[in-house]
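Example 9 (inverse folding). The structure is encoded as follows.
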């Protein structure tokens, strides 16, 4: 009725639609609810940040920026508003390196030597980091795979490629497999795997560390058959 108010009379449209003119005018003068006003304000702020960042940020980063501005908005709410408005972050085309082997941390010997066959469960695990594109932006994924069954026995996901990422994936594998001992856990020479905290986690649980040759992309395989 509001849209066609300049073309037809309110009385005529009320009669056709079966509503009262007084009801229409009451609706017209009604102010939006506080909840709707809040959503409108948050949506505008999300749009501003999204455009300032050239459409290259997802919900987690936008939520952090809103929090820095004093807005207590969770990333799930930000993601929902972005979906409603069709705002999707652009995928970066730049290659993301997941291995930093330029460090002075101790490196374990290569015990697998590209032998990715296992005779029993919990004999050999391999771990690696990759990255995946989501509606919320780039996220890093660490997995632990049992070479006997090709099952992913542990995984973790994070916005940052840290020691906690690989440690959380290994911890999940330990819990799911009831803390087996003397498992060979093979990975690349990345700083996360060579870190003191990750190595301590291996030692405390009596796991055997193995690392690939430097710069050999065929030395780690985490292609799962099933999860």
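The amino acid assigned to each position is listed next.
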């Amino acid at each position: 009725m509001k849209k066609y108010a300049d073309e037809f009379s309110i009385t005529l449209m009320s009669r056709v639609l079966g509503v009262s003119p007084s009801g229409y005018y009451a609706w017209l003068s009604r102010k939006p609810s506080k909840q709707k006003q809040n959503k409108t304000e948050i949506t505008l702020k999300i749009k501003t940040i999204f455009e300032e960042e050239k459409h290259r940020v997802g919900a987690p980063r936008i939520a952090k920026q809103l929090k820095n501005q004093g807005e207590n908005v969770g990333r799930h709410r930000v993601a929902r508003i972005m979906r409603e408005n069709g705002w999707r972050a652009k995928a970066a085309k730049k290659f993301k390196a997941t291995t930093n082997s330029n460090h002075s941390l101790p490196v374990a010997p290569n015990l697998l030597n590209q032998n990715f066959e296992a005779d029993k469960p919990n004999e050999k695990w391999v771990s690696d980091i990759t990255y995946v594109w989501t509606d919320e932006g780039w996220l890093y994924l660490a997995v632990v795979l049992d070479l006997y069954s090709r099952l992913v026995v542990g995984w973790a996901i994070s916005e940052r490629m840290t020691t906690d990422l690989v440690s959380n994936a290994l911890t999940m594998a330990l819990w799911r497999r009831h803390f087996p001992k003397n498992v060979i856990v093979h990975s690349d020479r990345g700083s996360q795997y060579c870190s003191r905290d990750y190595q301590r986690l291996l030692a405390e649980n009596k796991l055997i560390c193995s690392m690939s040759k430097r710069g050999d992309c065929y030395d780690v395989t985490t292609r799962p058959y099933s999860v």
